[in-house]
Amino acid sequence: DAKTTQPNSMESNEEEPVHLPCNHSTISGTDYIHWYRQLPSQGPEYVIHGLTSNVNNRMASLAIAEDRKSSTLILHRATLRDAAVYYCILRDVIEDMRFGAGTRLTVKP
Amino acid sequence: DSGVTQTPKHLITATGQRVTLRCSPRSGDLSVYWYQQSLDQGLQFLIQYYNGEERAKGNILERFSAQQFPDLHSELNLSSLELGDSALYFCASSVASSGDQETQYFGPGTRLLVL
Question: Which residues in B lie closer than 8 A to residue A31 (C-beta atoms)?
Answer without folding.
Answer: 100
